[in-house]
Fold each of these.
Amino acid sequence: MKFRLITALTVAIALAACQTPDPVPTGPTAEELAAQRAAEEARRAEEAARAEAARRAAEAEAARRRAEEEARLAAERARANEIVAGSLRDFEVNAGNRVYFDYDQFALRADAREVLARQAAWLRSYPQMKATIEGHADERGTREYNIALGVRRAQAVKDFLVSQGVEAARLETISYGKERPIDPGTGEAAWSRNRNGHTVLVTPQG
Amino acid sequence: MHTHGLIMTSFGKHRRVGLLAVAALLASIALAPRPAAAALTIDITQGNLEPLRVAIPEFLASTDEERKYAEDIATVLKNNLERSGLFSAIDRQAYIERQSEIDLRPRFPDWRVIGTQVLVNGRIQLQASGLMLVDFRVWDVSGEEQLLGLQLEIDPRNWRRIAHRVTDRIYQRLTGEAGYFDSRIVFISETGPKGARAKRLTIMDQDGASPSYLTNGSYLVLTPRYSPSAQQITYLSYEEGRPKVFLYNIANGRREALGQFEGMTFAPRFSPDGRGVIMSLESAGNSDIYTMDLNTRALTRLTSGPDIDTSPSMSPDGRQIVFTSDRAGDPQLYVMNADGSDVRRVSQGEGRYSTPVWSPRGDRIAFTKQIGGRFQIGVMRIDGSGEITLAESWSAEGPTWSPNGRVVVFFRQSAPNAESELWSVDLTGRNLRRVVTPVSASDPAWSPLLQ
């Protein structure tokens, strides 16, 4: 009878033996992987259904917010001559406070350079204003890597503004990685908005 | 939190039932689908090895208070054993023998007939001193032998830790390697909408019990990691605006920024001797890897160049560092000596690799990999060979090793906008299961075994 337990214990020991002298944990066998995948598939389908509802709600919400934001900006532009020059709103509406990046890139695109040229001109006109440039990434990367990527984007924005005559001392950079998406949705439309450099004006103290 | 007057004694026969010889024999045949002489079947279609069937009858106790502790300890023990994937508990209703004395041998046929392979019994006695005396015995039912006898004297408030320590002893006796049950996990609790998520530093026991929040969610915190003494946590915090590496002292709740620099500091981990923190420091947009001596606060730069170098993790002997770099165009894993010399790429497969973590055993690196629009958690040898995938999901990230290097915990989202959850999986890729947390969770980091 004794060998029965010994055999049973080998289950555990075999696992240990996989690692002890010359650890070679092989992956699960094909059947195990298949079973694991099947179980995973079933669970995933269930979770996906649940998540799909949440996703649709989030997308509807995002679409609503985008529409709202665009309407607001359009209205603002229509009243552009009512906006107080030099105000935060003036910067946002007439210069633009965000520029967007391609996936895993920090090179400034042509559309970004246009926005940044306006930002630089604006900042030159209001030399008392300082700004913090936030770098953001989409969710398709790991946290630490995206923090490093975000600060590169912020720095690319800063470098451009400095090259256009804005004093470096007026510009701070910070990265939020993928932690502060402006679009809660998923998919390229949301991700392309979430990869951005955001120039946030800092109201002068005193 | 602390175990007072903990005494561990062993008694009874400690014959190893030829286990070492068996282990040696099995080293060569461990991977064979089924040893010829096996009386048990191993159903690999379930993705699991056949677990050992364990019986844990109510521990002997004479008062209601003792009975309450006895039941609570037995429950935690049973849950630990079952979650390990190596054991399944037999329903108590099937039990035949009702033991009345701890010092009598069990009636083995009564246990065999209901399929028991391992029997754990015990006795709880509250003493005049206020301490609780706990006796445990573990029996090989087929061999009719005592495998383990333990007597512990503890503060009853620490009853959970006793259950974990006993599990560790059982695990060690039956697998021949150290356990991981008397340990904790630090992680980030997440609540609120995606664009303005509140994140709080949280610790809990490895089984999810006793969660406690260390920060209040008013500022962003990320990527906590335990010190080798389990007394401190290093993490990334936006508490002062600019992201900085912080230290949190668990005993007194004090936290401090680790130095003041022009650029951000992030991606911290302790060195295995606990004397230093290795992390990324950013300067003019460029991230490089540095070590900081925690006594002198002196920085030593280890990487240079215009690329992202981050997520460093030291080997347990302190001689090498694995990290993420995009120097070849996209994120890949590299190993270098602890002084920054001899950098070589180790990730060889397709895909984007990041968050490498060196195993406490020293022979494996766990990592996150992005491929085909999905995320995987995998492990590889330290030269990059032998890569296997442990888990795959819409999103998955941040593996952390159990103190014995047998289990990996990570966080995942099964689908877009699904909750972020902690999951655990064995190094073999088996026993994938959720680690339950009070709210959404991310960035887990396992503590060492508690002292």
Amino acid sequence: MTRTLWDSSVGKKTIMAVSGLIMLGYLVVHMLGNLKIFFGPDEFNHYAHWLRTIGEPFLHYEWALWIIRVVLVAAVVLHAVCAYQLSRRDLRARPTAYVHRKARSSYATRTMRYGGIILALFIVWHILDLTTGTVHTGGFQSGHPYQNVLDTFSTWYGNVIYIVAVIAVGLHVQHGFWSAAQTLGVGSATRDRVLKSLANVLAVVLTAGFVSVPVAVMTGVVS
Amino acid sequence: MKLTLRVWRQQNAEAPGAMATYEVDGISQDMSFLEMLDTLNEELILSGDEPVAFDHDCREGICGACSLVINGDAHGPERTTTCQLHMRSFDDGDTIDIEPWRASAFPVVKDLVVDRSSFDRIIQAGGYISAPTGTAPDAHATPVPKPDADSAFEHAECIGCGACVAACPNGSAMLFTSAKVNHLGVLPQGAPERETRVLDMVATMDDEGFGGCTLTGECATACPKGIPLPSITAMNKEWLRATRKVHR
């Protein structure tokens, strides 16, 4: 069955749908966790520490976090590899472009590939900035995420990179969530309006939730 | 009507092609698009030039032979086949771009004619039933629920013209394949091959070099027979079901 999935364009789309939904689920939780920044440094930092203690004493310190990280890396890699291979197939299938060009499909649909590349680059920067602190400006302090977030959103480029990436997430989710439903065969003519609305709501809520943090730092609501 | 036509001319599969510009005059609004091309070809023949090659057969919108991407739209601006498109959909003095279906699985044979035998090979992979169904009266011996019969009929409307592939930015044949899979899959007569049909037809579709589906919806917009986009969703569901059931 694994061979069948990997050998078929429909199978690769299934892998993309499932890995995409895993990442989407993570994003919703991540966004909600970020909003804790509005309750002050103590609660935010305590939440960040709690993330490392999930599952104790059954799990060792940080084990749950590492399990989540492994699942996410697997999802990102599978999603990206399938996207690359399917894109190659799609481009090969239309070797000669039409002379008379027309703007086709929605903006979100047309920008899925660029959006995916933007997001992949963003994830690398985001981890180096706020997880490892390698490219962090203002002195990275492990265990003090509140201050680290303030540092990042006190630089113009930190805000620009983050907000561009968050908009890319919104667009990607808007087409991606609905597409995943079609790929997994749960869409139908009667369910279409519900699925499209759900995709729009997810896209707007994720974008607004993530963007609220840099906006709050820039406007001094969080300081 | 007087029109400027920019038409893709290509001597054969190997030769490079290019857009050529022609002026045609005296076109009636009641002419079909193909009759307009016939007029152009008569003029070309009289002046000693080679006529433009294009596919056509029944000219009543049921055979699926005609094609043409007209001003960037498969089968032109109306939701019908090119043979049923009439010149009243255009204005006097218009410039009209006419191109062949573009897909690596539909190589150009000459001018506007493409080789669509890749569709035949997808059908050969599973677009049939093996059960003897007898003569017409015997059809009533097997009861088919009305919703299933309606669904089968809706998908059976596909004439295999290839507009879905031409319109898809990925040159994907998912709408065509899903129409065939769903047409036979919902009927009791199609049940014996239900799993192998979808697996083999999708595999052949991939092998023929068609692109994948990114759900842009262009195929369903272009389809002259109105095969709906959820048809693809239904085929995805069938494919996943078959993958779970058939171990190989």
